[in-house]
Design brief:
Layout (H helix, E strand, L loop, with lengths): L6 H12 L3 E8 L2 E5 L15 H22 L6 H14 L1 H5 L2 H7 L3 H6 L6 E2 L2 E2 L1 H14 L9
Antiparallel strand pairs: 1-2, 3-4
Length: 153
C-alpha cells in the first residue's frame, strides 16, 4: 500500500525537478528577473542575491499561497497529487492564464480526464514549443493522474 503524501511535497518535488535554484537574479525575459526556484516579483532585479535558506523559504511561501489559490479557484475535490500538480502548473503558467484556461473549466465541470489532457497545450513561449515545458507539462499531467513522484520525469 502506498504511503499517503501531502500536496505540498508533490508541488515542491515537481518545481525542483524543473527549476534550478538560482541564488543570484537572472533575466528570464526582457525586464523579468527571477531568483530562487523561478520566483519573480517587484523585489527582484539585477544584482539581487539570496541564500539557499531564503530560496527554500520563498518556495515554501509561494507553494502555500498557490495552494490557497487552487482551493479558491477549483470547485471540485482534488487528490493530493492533483493539487500538487496544479500548484506546479500555476506557478509556471501564472494565475491569470490558469483562471482563463480550459483545464480549469473542464476540471470544475468534473471532467478530470479531459482536464488532464490540457496540460500539454501549454508548452510554448513566444509561439515556439519549448522542450523543458513539454517535459514539465507531461510530468505534471502524469502526477495529476496519480503517478508517483518517485518516478523520474
Amino acid at each position: 500500500m502506498e504511503k499517503a503524501i501531502h500536496w505540498e511535497k508533490v508541488a515542491k518535488h515537481i518545481i525542483k525537478e524543473f527549476e534550478t535554484c538560482e541564488l543570484v537574479a537572472y533575466e528570464a525575459k526582457q525586464d523579468v528577473w527571477k531568483i530562487g526556484y523561478g520566483y519573480s516579483g517587484k523585489d527582484v532585479s539585477k544584482g539581487t542575491a539570496w541564500t539557499k535558506v531564503r530560496a527554500e523559504m520563498e518556495l515554501e511561501n509561494y507553494v502555500e499561497s498557490d495552494g490557497d489559490y487552487i482551493e479558491a479557484t477549483v470547485s471540485v475535490p482534488l487528490t493530493e497529487y492533483e493539487k500538487g500538480a496544479l500548484v506546479s502548473f500555476v506557478r509556471s503558467l501564472g494565475r491569470v492564464a490558469f483562471a482563463k484556461s480550459n483545464l480549469l473549466k473542464l476540471l470544475n465541470k468534473g471532467n478530470t480526464a479531459d482536464a488532464a489532457e490540457q496540460f500539454e497545450k501549454h508548452t510554448k513561449e513566444n509561439g515556439q514549443v519549448v522542450k523543458r515545458l513539454t517535459r514539465r507539462r507531461g510530468y505534471e499531467r502524469f502526477v495529476f493522474l496519480g503517478g508517483s513522484i518517485e518516478d523520474k520525469a
